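Section 3.1: Structural characterization of target chains.
Under the original work plan, the team committed to producing a structural model for every single-chain target entering the pipeline before any wet-lab resources were allocated. The record below documents one such target. The sequence was received from the expression subgroup and is listed exactly as submitted; it comprises 258 residues.
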Amino acid sequence: MRVAVAGGTGLVGGHVVEELTAAGHEPVVLARSRGVDLVTGAGLDAVMTGVEAVVDVSNLQTTGAGKSIAFFENVSRNLLDAGARVGVRHHVVLSIVGLERVGFGYYQGKLRQEETVAKSGAVPWTVLRATQFHEFPAQVLDRVPGPLAVVPRMRTQPVAAREVARHLVELVLGPPQGMAPELAGPRVEELVDMARQLVRARGRRRLLLPVKMPGRAGTAMVEGGNLPTGPGARGSQTFDEWLAENVVPDRAKGVAGE
């Protein structure tokens, strides 16, 4: 099967491409580096010929609601319209657990993405909401280098990005489900504890300052707004196991610690 992967050069997208290839399918990467602008739709029709299914794991770096809403709505409409023109039978979207409860600006864009897909009527669809990935603490710490790092207080149930990709591939090869059961990792973690473990695994010294984010969003994060609320698939790899497999101490790389 020929499957388009929107955002196929990203963290999860790369794993989706690998999983599809290993299963004997033909992934088609949709990304600017491959000549496709998902926001404007430029170059999209040229690569969609023969595509039977789409996995949308596209993303952008922003905390603003306006930018997030505009991005995800435009990308979704372009993918759905292009998919309808070539007869795509299944459109699968990766989303985030707890969108309504936490309500960040970025999350508002993901909600608009879900709504756009559900209301389009153009292509049968599935939305998979997943929790944060094991890479999330590194993304938080690496935003601002230096001896001090501000870490939001947050409860999460992190999952391996590869396991998310594997689940997306299972979904896209099956029948459309609408809102699929939520996917999460094997256990609940505190983000600041994960960040401390990561700093130690890197062989660094860094002062971490846990901070409750302001407003209802911050309260929701502390109280478990990002945790799954019902039954669903659970990944098997813990954060500890992911650290041991993926993080090499700086001293082993010849890099000075912080």
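Residues 65-86 form the longest helix (22 residues).
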